[in-house]
Design a protein that fits this description.
about 30 residues, about 85% helix, mainly alpha, rod-shaped
């Protein structure tokens, strides 16, 4: 019983955490 709101919220959280992780990994790779 998952509502569309829960799906959009989880997608937003995953995209936010994922972008921060990619940015941190990127700066670690170029340093």
């Amino acid at each position: 019983n998952v509502s569309p709101h829960d799906i959009s919220l989880s997608v937003k959280v995953v995209s936010t955490v994922g972008s921060e992780f990619i940015t941190m990994y990127f700066f670690t790779a170029i340093s």
